Amino acid sequence: MTQGVELTANELAGVMSRAECLHDAAAVDAALDRLGVAITATLSEQRPLVLGVMTGAIVPLGRLLTRLSFPLELDYIHATRYHKSTTGRELVWLARPQTPLRGRHVLIVDDILDEGHTFRGLLEACREEGAASVRTAVLADKPNAGRVPGLEADFVGLTVPERYVFGVGMDYKGYLRNIDGIYAAHRDDEDD
Questions:
Q1: Catalytic pick from 111, 114, 171, 189?
Q2: Cα 38 to the chain's mean position, in Å?
Q3: Tens-place pLDDT, residues 176-189
Q4: Which member of 9, 38, 65, 165 has the greatest number of CB atoms within 10 A?
Q5: SS3 per-residue string spanning 42-82
Q6: What is residue 22's predicted lDDT score, i.e. its pLDDT?
């Protein structure tokens, strides 16, 4: 399959039937509970600005917000290197936050930390805008040799292997973000 090719319902059903469930819905809920407790312990007194990284953060951020019962503001940021592809290219900015960052305690929430090039760009942008502090939370961490050296998320829900993963916000070629669980695509379905 190549970038830009629309996938049929049958093709997507095949991807799902061959995929391996890495973390089921209960494991995802437990991870979000842990993230909520850890973030609350660290940021509840800081009235943070929470920035969801679009589009992947929509699902995990929405579910995480209900676990954060302290005053916060919400905005989003949108930059990508993938754009419906399985491999990354240059960083493309689609939207910067509308809320001023100067002097704010910022929490960037994303679906996954993989190689970290996009993540690093988001951190640098927030710091350049004068944020008082910038912390990061991801539902899934995918440690790998290609990661930006020294880059780690402050709050991590789950760890996934070096595979093409999807579900709970992470996509398979633009689809399957809404799957409740984290799945690894079969090796035959990983090719772009």
A1: 114
A2: 17
A3: 999 999 999 998 88
A4: 165
A5: HHCCCCCEEEEEECCCHHHHHHHHCCCCCCCEEEEEEEECC
A6: 98
Instruction: Please answer whether residues 62 and 90 qualify as being in contact, where contact means their C-beta atoms are separated by less than 8 angstroms.
Output: no
Q: Are 109 and 51 in contact (CB under 8 A)?
A: yes
C-alpha distances out from residue 1 to 5, 42, 65, 176, 178, Å? 7, 44, 36, 16, 21
The answer to whether 114 is a known catalytic residue is yes
pLDDT at site 89: 56
Check whether 85 has a pLDDT greater than 60: no
Domain boundaries, given as residue ranges, for the chain: 22-189
Find residue 166's DSSP bridge partners.
Answer: 183
- Per-residue pLDDT, averaged over 122-150, amounts to 94
